[in-house]
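Recall that a protein's primary structure is simply its ordered list of amino acids. Everything else, from secondary elements to tertiary packing, is in principle encoded there. The following example makes that idea concrete.
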Amino acid sequence: MLRFLGAALVLALPTVLMGGTLPVLVGGVARDVRQLGIRAGRFYAVNTAGAVAGTIGAGFFLIPWMGLRLTFITAVLLNVIAGLLAQRIARPITVASEDVLPKRAESANVQSSALYMVCLSAVGATAIAYDLSWPRLLATPLGSSTNAFSLMLGVFLLGIAIGSALFESWLRKKHKATAGVFAVTEFAIAAAVLFSLWIYREIPDVLLFLLRNFGDKFRSLLAAQALTCALALLPATILFGFNFPAVLALASGSKRPSTEKERSFSSSVGRAAAANTVGAILAAIVGGFFLLPWMGSFRLVALAASVNVAIGVVLSLNANSRNWRPVAVAALLLAAIGWTAWSPTFFSNASAAFGVVLYGGYHNSALTAREWQTPRTLYFSRMAFTPRLPSRVLKITSH
């Protein structure tokens, strides 16, 4: 509780203001639903691309060169510059006439709008569940250095930026954001996550192959780590980036009763972003403090993928209650996810405990990572504090 209060004291005000940035930007330049989707996709892509640049720049350059304090001050200066530029370019926006505004083909009632908010909150929860789990799954083979974590986060954000840019391009081709599109992206996210779980056991061999062929220079190590992260994370995160602006356009375009005053797009985008963030907060608390210690990272990823499937089913039935094909697809996905999570075929304790970056060059032989691990059976592993040592020590009993 003390840590929470201390963090809130430092972070509450700036993060509240950060949360208002995207709604203000999108609402200031969009005057109809289709334009909202295009602007949201563009702004979200540019914003996330900046986050990728900040992640790589801070992790690899600013913190090593300048330290934490000066890096923090640099971020503050960037906020000041952004504010000055925004004030410089601000100008009245001309609203297009009603006859040229594209009309929304699919209407939704208030209940549908509320449903989209709940689903968007669940999507935010799954995103944080993946963000909690995958760095833990990849930290052992890739290494737990600051550079490795920066690469993981950078690849995660890069996928979101690519997906948002793809959504803008897709919407410009006269496509429309519908509940069916939302549902399909959720099924696709679950399928992409399932694929990443299937290949997780092969990650040590993939990384070892790259390390042996790229050479022993530092940039070669970074390239091998980045490619391995991309193989595991990019398919799902690209779909996440496509999904968020699609839901913004969908939720903001829903019709409301005539007795209710029409809300601005800024308000709609703000409510959608708030719903997404509330789900993320709940997932961070429940996942980080309860689910992760209880079921482990691999099964938490599988649980989050199951939530994506459930979201897809709910949206599909809400759009067309007589179409049961999505239910059949969902049943197949859930069966595959459950089998993957509880079967030893795709997850091995020996593979999960093998540090490829640490031991990849230890034996320069033709053996694969799987062959190194096969003779060893891990019976017990725990993190323990040793009173005589100042640091945390990993005690492993193996045969």
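Residues 363-398 form one domain. Residues 94-109, 255-263, 384-399 have pLDDT under 50 and may be disordered.
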